[in-house]
Amino acid sequence: MKIPKTYNPYFMAVIATFGGALIGFDVSSLSAIVGTSQYINFFGNPNGVVQGAIGSSLAAGSVVGAALAGPASDRWGRRDTIFVSCFFWVIGTIIQASTISTGMLIAGRILNGVTIGVTSAQVPVYLAEIAKKDIRGALIIFQEFAIEFGVLIMYFIGYGASFISGATTSFRLAWAMQLVPCLVLMAGLPFLPRSPRWLAKVGRLEEAYDILAKVQANGNRDDPVVVAEWQEITLTLNAEREALRGWRKFIKNGMWRRTLAGISVMVWQQLTGANALIYYVVYIFQMAGLTGNINLISAGALYASLIIGTAITYVIVDKVGRRPLLVLGILGMGTCQFVVGGVLGQYGTYLPDGLDGNLNVRVTVTGAASHTVIAFSYIGMLLYGLTLAPVPWVYCAEVWSLETRSVGMSVAVVFNWLCNFALGLFVPPAFANITWKTFIVFGVLCFAGGIHMFLQYPETGQKTLEEVEELFQKGAKPAWKTRVGQSHLDEKVAEIKEHKQEEAQLVEDIVRKHD
């Protein structure tokens, strides 16, 4: 029996971005648990490199998943590749929920990471290729919404489970709940259509055109928007097929600029240090003097601020554009990192034996200094939700050509998860050894990223994916002179409408003369 399909772009985005919910669930599956007595006692008070290995194991698996996602997606399609990857999640979650050792926990997180690598690389590609240009940014941001809601929901699941008596029941139950979003994703994916651009790429042109018409114009194959966009897709695809093959297509004829932009935007997202705050917010708030339930609830509120920021960006990203949000956001986050690091360095008390035996927390502040650290942590996370959390996923999905998009996005996500892995491994030892200087390092990286973005990232908002190619060609405008909109597609649509009116008028004149 053929499974019916839905072509509502928002419904498609909601289902597809349950892949983001998987990321959120696993990202925060440790956050509310690492500070509990059950976790500390069962796993032998992990700290430093050991805790770093547990935290970063998710990213290690994600590197593998992202590397496999591009070739698999080109061969079997975006939708089906995402579906198959879910089986790694099911196995990994079962292993985590039944863990009896640190090694088993790490193995389960690595398997979950494989699924996350695939979904983080291919869900934005799928949404970018199927969405209308005017709402493409908003739809891709659904992915980030799902991540953040996943983070928040899983965090409070872990927080609530921490009150369950018993040595291991609390974290086993919390980790088992990670199955829920995966099962929803697997149930919903068969109802989604394939990407029309992928279908065109593999030669299934009639099916591609049919889906494009259903998504863009409720099935009207003669709609001017459908006709104009199909012309762009086919012309661009034919040109790309005559271009270089293999790895050279990522660097020749100006493609190196797009490759650099796609990879670097994902790298800078990680080097802001925001994910260090997401993973280890409990430690940072302990540095600010918060302990017990107050610490855990405050950390949950921090995740809520992340969602608030992204909700605002969902509304404005296709109007304001990608470039202003990226540049201003990373500079603002850098300022917050400098403030937090400066306050901890100036007013902090060094604890050589850690805070209450927690060797990951070796500096603490009180009073006004504590309030400042907490306030700028919230501001930094709000800015991250507004800018660097959602927008890099949008920008990276847009800058590639059709021939390079799936593999290019996978390469960019590999770099993203490599940085995530490195930071997850680096931050606990950094907190233990250089304490407040960790935040200064992130602040410097933020300002370096802001300069690079200002000079090299052109605006892609409200342009078709095919038009984005022109922004990176030799002789194109400098990045800082590009603006939202200015799409040629609107002109083509107007020309097609005018041509259809002329044809209709000609037919009417012939009929009149005949009568």
Brief overview:
With 515 residues, the chain is mainly α. Helix content is 74%, strand content 1%. It starts with 8 loop residues before the first helix and ends with a helix.
Textual characterization of the structure:
- Belongs to the major facilitator superfamily. Sugar transporter (TC 2.A.1.1) family.
- It is a single chain.
- By secondary structure, this protein is an all-alpha fold.
- It has a single domain, classed as Growth Hormone, Chain: A (Up-down Bundle).
- It contains 22 helices and 2 strands.
- It has a two-stranded antiparallel ribbon.
- Helix 13 packs antiparallel against helix 18, helix 15 runs parallel beside helix 17 and helix 16 runs antiparallel to helix 20.
- The model has no long low-confidence stretch (mean pLDDT 82).
